[in-house]
Amino acid sequence: MIVSDFAARKRDGVPISMVTCYDAWSAALIAQTGIDCVLVGDSLAMVVYGHDTTLPADVATMAAHTAAVRRGAPDAFIIGDLPFLSYRRGLGEAVDAAGDLMRAGAQAVKLEGAAGNLETVRHLVESGVPVIGHLGLTPQSVHRLGGFRVQARDDAAAARLLDDARDLERAGCFALVLEAVPSAVAAQVTAALAIPTIGIGAGSRVDGQVLVLQDLLGVTTAFRPRFVRTWLDGATLIREALDAYHRDVVAGTFPDDRESYS
Ligand code: KIV
After folding, report:
1. Ligand 1 pocket, 42 CB below 6 A?
2. Residue 221, pLDDT above cutoff 80
3. Where in the chain is the domain with CATH 3.20.20.60?
4. Measuring CA to CA, which of 136, 160, 196, 216 is 20 to 30 A from 112?
5. Residue 220: band (very low, low, confident or very high) from pLDDT cuts 50, 70, 90
6. What is the mean pLDDT of residues 125-143?
7. pLDDT band for position 224 (50/70/90)?
8. Does the CB atom of residue 105 touch ligand 1 within 6 A?
9. Positions marked catalytic
10. CA–centroid distance, residue 42 to ligand 1 (Å)
């Protein structure tokens, strides 16, 4: 995938599949599938590091994980998430943050929200950094939003979301993530834009989907939002494998002769 493929996929009506990825081993597995692109999301603060929100992720952490994903999947299209506040201190800081993620191996960056970000998006795009926008539930604003809640439920909020989406498209974003918004709102935004929308909890009338890898593999045991489908009962399979290893160690049946050097 390259940046221009995103608009082409929308024009051709072929949905885009995106999945989050934080490390080299899962990146290598994803690279052996048909998945179109990977997002090194700041959700890693929650999924990998066990925080309650994405706020603790910083640029150095995001760059380290982006580099790991690049090593695992040398040919993948990788989007690096600009973490909390890293693009709000002015154009210079935003350029530095984006530069760190791009040098670590990302081909594009993602940032949350439209208000106060339009000049930054324009500047990054003009500087050679492809940018994806993110509207609806923007987890970096979790405290302002009062929790991880569905957004744009009333007409006024839906109209604001549409305006923001148009502004981000005009500023130069090549795609837009829509998170936790009613399907009808996501469909309206999708119809209004030439750039593709990538939904997460935004229904099916969008141009692509993104999910957290650990959610779709069923390895996350905490709260599972309604929009997540699991294609694997990973938690059960992993627990069973670990218990089997433990039993074999305790029984003295691991390692056997074939697993030992003579
Ligand atoms: O950080 C992340 O994983 C994301 C996706 C949920 C879109 O932003």
Report:
1. yes
2. no
3. 3-231
4. 216
5. confident
6. 98
7. confident
8. no
9. 179
10. 6
> In 3D, which of 222, 132, 140 has the Cα closest to residue 177?
132
For atom 2 of ligand 1, which residue has the closest CA? 41
Q: From the alpha carbon of 54, which atom of ligand 1 is closest? A: 1
3-class state of residue 110 by DSSP: strand
Which DSSP helix (H) or strand (E) runs through 27?
helix 24-31
Q: Is 18 in the pocket of ligand 1 (CB under 6 A)?
A: no
CATH superfamily of 3-231: Phosphoenolpyruvate-binding domains (3.20.20.60)
Tokens of residue 235, six digits: 């938690």
Q: What pLDDT is attached to residue 137?
A: 97
The answer on pLDDT for 160 being more than 80 is: yes
Average pLDDT, the chain: 97
Report the phi/psi class of residue 166: left, alpha or beta, with left for phi > 0 and alpha for psi in -120 to 50. Answer: alpha
Q: Is the CB of 100 under 6 A from ligand 1?
A: no
Q: What is the pLDDT of residues 42-97, one digit of tens each?
A: 999 999 999 999 999 999 999 999 999 999 999 999 999 999 999 999 999 999 99
Which residue intervals of 48-182 are DSSP H helices? 59-72, 91-104, 118-126, 142-145, 155-171
Which atom of ligand 1 is nearest the CA belonging to 198?
A: 7
Nearest alpha carbon, ligand 1 atom 5:
41
